[in-house]
Amino acid sequence: MRNLNILSKALPVLRVLGVAGMASGAMLGMAHADVTVETANGPVTVPDNVERVIALSEESLDAVLALGVKPLATVQARGQTGVSPYLQELADGVEMAGTSREYNLERIVALRPDVIFTSARLRDNQYNMLSKIAPTIVPESAGFGNWTDSLQARAEILDREDKADELLAELDDRIADVKAKIGDRSNETVAIVRWTQAGPQAFTWHAQGGQILQQLGFGTVPFSGDLTKRPHSDPLSLENMSAIDADWLIVGEFGEGGSESFDAVRDSAVYQNLRAVENDQIVVVDGSLWTSASGPLSSFEMLDDIEEAFVGHMAKAD
Amino acid sequence: MKRHAFAIACLALAFACFLSLITGAGLGENHVGLFRIVSYFMGGDDTWTPIVLFDLRLPRTILGALVGAALGLAGIVLQTTLRNPLAEPGLLGVGSGSAFAVVMAIFLGITAPIYQVPIAVAGAAAGCLVALAIARPRGGMDDPVRLILAGAAINGLLGAAISIVLLTDQKTADELRFWTIGSLSGRDLDIALRVIPVMLLGIILTVFVTRALSAMSVGEHIARGLGHNPQRIRKIAMFAVALLVGAATATCGPVTFVGLVAPFVARGLVGPTLEKSFPLSAVVGAILVIVADIVTRIPVRPSELSLGIVTAVIGAPVLIAVVRGRRMPGL
C-alpha cells in the first residue's frame, strides 16, 4: 500500500523535474514570491497568483467572498441544500462539492484548484487527501467565531491584505454605529435560540452572534453563557424554555421545517408566558446566518438584523 | 459453469476493479477516464491523473474488495452455522452493534484510530450474541424468520440509540456520520493496514472450521462421530463472523445485504459444498461492493450516494426471493 502511495508521488515529480529546471529561469523575472502561512498542519506554502479557489466551509466561503474572490466550489451550509441564504447572491454560480462533513473529491480534483480553504475541524484523513490535490489551508484556531486571524492568512494568500484591513476597520465602525443607535443596553439580556424542525435549542453566547451582542453591551442568561464548549447548542423542550427567559429572544429558524415548527408553538401558553414574548421583544431571524455562519459578511448581516430589530422596537415605543 | 465458477468469478472481480479505477463522478473535460489513464501510463505529462488514480480510486477499490470479501464470507459462515439462509450480518444486529460501539466510543472520547477496529469487532460480537439470545435458535428446527425479527428489533433499538447520541452531540455527529450510513469515499489505505490482520484472522478461523461445519450440515451425530465438537465449532465460527463484520464496519460503516446476496449467488453457482461456496461467496461479495461503490459515484451531487443504500437496493429483492422461495429451509 505504502509503496503505491510513494509511487504516485514520485512519478509526476520525476517527470516534472526536467521541465522545472528550464521554467525557473523564466519565472525569475516575475519577482512575486510564494506565500507561506501558518496553518493547523504547520506552515503551508501557496504559489503566487492564486486564481482557482475552493472554500470548503461556510466560514471560509464568507471570508473569501468578503475579500472579493469568487471560489469555484464550496459545500452546503448546515441545514441547507446550497449556500446560506445571506450569501446566495454573491455566491451565485459557485458549485457545490459536498457537505460540511464529506467532500466530493473527484469533483474537487476536476476543478484543478490552486488553493483549498477549509474549516478548522477538518479530519486528518480528509487533510491527507485534500493536500495532495492543492495546498490546503486549515485555520489554526478552532474557537467560536474567531475568524480574524484566518481572514488575514487567507487575504495574504489571495494578495488582498488591504481588503482584509479595510473589512476589519469597517466592521469596528459599524459596531460603534449600531451601538450609538441602540444606546446603553448593559442591563438587558439576550438569548439566542436555534429553532429546528425538532424544536428549540439554546445556542451558545460565545459564537459570533453572542460576541457581537456582547460588544454592543448586552448580557445573557446563565444557561446560554454556560455553553462554552462543543456542542454549542442544547436541545430544549418547550417546558424548560424558561431556562432562557431573557429580556430579548433572538430566534433563528433553522433548516427545513424550522419555521413551521416555530409557528406551531406561537399560540402555546408556555411560549406566551416568556418575558420576551410578553414584552414583544422577540426577534425572528435566519437561523442559518445566526447559528451556523461566521466571517465578515455574516457579521455585517447580523448587525443589520440587530439594528433593524432594536431601532425598530425603539421607534414603536416612542 | 459449475466447475469453473470460481475462476470466472475471479475474472469478473478483476473486471469490476478495472471499472472502478476508470469510473469517476461526472464526465467533465477534466474527467479521468480510460483514455487519460492510458496516455498517462504511456508517459504523458499529467500531474492530476495519478492523484485521482492512486489516491482516490485505488484506495476505495482495494477497501471495497476487502469489505465485500469479508461480508460475503461472514454471511455464508453465519448462514451455515445457524442453518438459516436469511442470516445476514446487517440484518442480525451485527453491523449495527458494531456501529453503535464505535459511536459510543467516540462519544466517550476514545478517538484514537487504533481502538476503532477492536471496538467495532467487540460491538459486532455483542450485537450478534444479543440477537441470538433473543431468537434462541435451536439448530435447523427453528423458523428462520424468527432470527430476522430479533435482528430487526436490535437494529431498531441500536439505530434509535445512535440517533440519540448523534442528536445530543454535534461533534460525534460530525465525526461519525459515515459510520451510520456506510461509505468508501475519502478513506485512505492506512485503515486497510489496520483491518487486514483482523480479516486474516477471521479467514483463518473460517478455514479451520470449514470441514467441521461440512460434517455438521450432514448431521450433528455424524460430526461428533468424526471427532468434532459442534458447540465449540459454532462458537469459533461466530467469532470469525464478528471479526470479519467488525473489520468491515470499521472500514466503511455498516453495509447491509452483501452477506445475504453473496452466499445466495455462490450457492446458486456451485451448490452447497462449503469448500467451494465459501471462497466463491467472498469473491462475489467483493464484486458486489465494488460495483455498488461505482454506482454511488455516478448520480447525486453535491455528495455521493451512500454505499449502504445501493447495496440495500440490490439486496432487498434477493431477500424477498429467498423468503418466498421453496428452498428456504434447505440448509
* DSSP helical segment count of chain A: 13
How does the helix and strand content of chain B classify structurally? mainly alpha
In total, the number of strands of chain B is: 0
Sketch the topology of chain A as an H/E string, one letter per element.
HEEEHEEHEHEHHEEHHEEHHHEHH
Q: Can you count the helices of chain B?
A: 13
Report helical residue fraction of chain A.
40-55%
Q: Which range does the strand content of chain A fall in?
A: 15-25%
Biggest sheet overview of chain B: none
What does this structure look like?
The complex is a heterodimer of chains A (318) and B (331). Chain A is an alpha/beta fold and 318 residues long. Helices cover 43% and strands 15% of the residues of chain A. In chain A, the strands form 3 sheets. A 5-stranded parallel β-sheet of chain A has the order 5-4-3-6-7. In chain A, strands 10-9-8-11-12 form a 5-stranded mixed β-sheet, sandwiched between helices. Chain A has a two-stranded antiparallel ribbon with strand order 1-2. In chain A, strand 6 (115-117), helix 4 (124-133) and strand 7 (136-137) form a beta-alpha-beta unit. In chain A, helix 5 (148-157) packs antiparallel against helix 6 (161-182). Chain A is globular. Residues 1-31 of chain A have low confidence and may be disordered. Chain B is mainly α and 331 residues long. Chain B is built from 13 helices and no strands. Chain B has helices at residues 5-22, 34-41, 48-82, 94-107, 113-135, 144-168, 170-181, 190-218, 220-225, 230-252, 258-270, 274-297, 307-324. In chain B, helix 3 (48-82) packs across helix 12, helix 4 packs parallel to helix 6 (144-168) and helix 12 (274-297) packs across helix 13 (307-324). The longest helix of chain B has 35 residues, at 48-82. The model of chain B has no long low-confidence stretch (mean pLDDT 83). The chains are: A alpha/beta (318), B mainly alpha (331). Chain A binds chain B through residues 1-2, 4-5, 7-8, 11-12, 15-16, 19, 75-76, 95-107, 109-112, 121, 123, 125-126, 128-129, 132-133, 198, 230-233, 235, and chain B through 24-26, 28, 30-32, 45-48, 50-56, 58, 62, 167-171, 174-175, 177-178, 183, 185-190, 192-193, 297, 301-304.
